[in-house]
Amino acid sequence: MNDIDILKILAENLSNRKSNAILSNYEVLCNNIDYVNKTLKFSLLRLEQTQKSIADKMQDDTLVNIDFQDANNPLFYFRTIIPRILLNGSNVCNKLLLLTEADEKISKQENLYKCERSFSKYNDLVTGARQYIDSLVADVYQLVLLEPKSLNYHILVSLNSFNKYATKSLRQGLFNEPINDALTEFEKLNFDKWKNSPITKCAHDTFAKKVNYLFQELNITDTNNLKDEIKNLFKFSSEFAHIGFVSTFFTSTYDNEVILTSESGTLLYLPSTENFSELKYRILETAMNFYCIVYLPAIIDCCMKVFQKDTFKSIKEELIFQINDVKARVATRNSKYYFFILNGLIESKQVISLKCRCNAVRLWTPPHEAGNLFCLECGSVFNLIVIDKDGYIPTDEGPARPVGSSLPDVNELPIAEQEILFEQCNACKVKK
Ligand SMILES: [Zn+2]
Description:
56% of the residues lie in helices and 7% in strands. The chain is mainly α and 432 residues long. It has 14 helices and eight strands.
């Protein structure tokens, strides 16, 4: 291909947008977005309490390590700066939470305009995600590094930019004489010395380098390619933050959209609403993984350096609890569950009731299409194992009663019979 061939392809294919593809179940998406958003919201409330307690403890000389007690040691000043960095993180998280709330449920056609998703909505969401990942990485980088010159660089660059355009009143609130002196000292440096001078240092000057450093320092086993996922979100959001060609092309259309109805018939939405929610959910998942796998562990790492053993132990226990709690909650979404079902039921005219682990009940109506074997509430997929004879089946998680069984629920059996069944389950585990 030559230059004209390429230009032809771009002109012909990127000037008229193709129709949207609907690839997910909108109702499930909304439920999952709501669930994950609230999980992160509750976790953040709890984290904010922990942060307050960390801030209080940092002011107590008897709780911090010896290097942090001595005003002649530069580490002493991190005791006032760390709580500020943590507070910054909460503000950034709260903003993302506002932008990733589930859609308002719309059932009347005249309200459909509320769920149309065009460029400005996309831009708000994606730039919010950009700010989240960008600022939190910068923040935890400082928390893990705890290095005076690097922190100086981080703050002085920010002050320098702010000072270039801030109005008189904004400047008034921030710049006193000592701050002006520090900034003047920084501005005396040649630009090429900013990253390595007697007062400043920046060893990892790009987003990607900071991410690599954090994964290495925190010993993160990256089983699910979170490192790439974070970097990809950063690149994807650059396109939106700088309003590149593709982002406006993708999100602006002159055509009217078709109106869609959810499976249960209660929700109305547009293709752009569904596409937007898909992206919102992906961002939420990345944000949540980053929170559990990088952000909270970085706070633990920082506290380990600052606090004495016993104080650190209690903070660590609390933060590990928060990490495991969020992980366990999120793991219940989009899972795969197995049900035993009696032979003949699938071919029958009966409505089959399948109770998901999230407690939602899926009513599987004849002709029992395999494509409908999922939970509308949490998106988990159901796999059926057909069995010929009615009876309790020993599994790793206890005795299971097949769907369509005429036997009572295990909990309703006499205790002695329940014990026998659980013993059978244990025996299976041992055999394995
Ligand atoms: Zn479910």
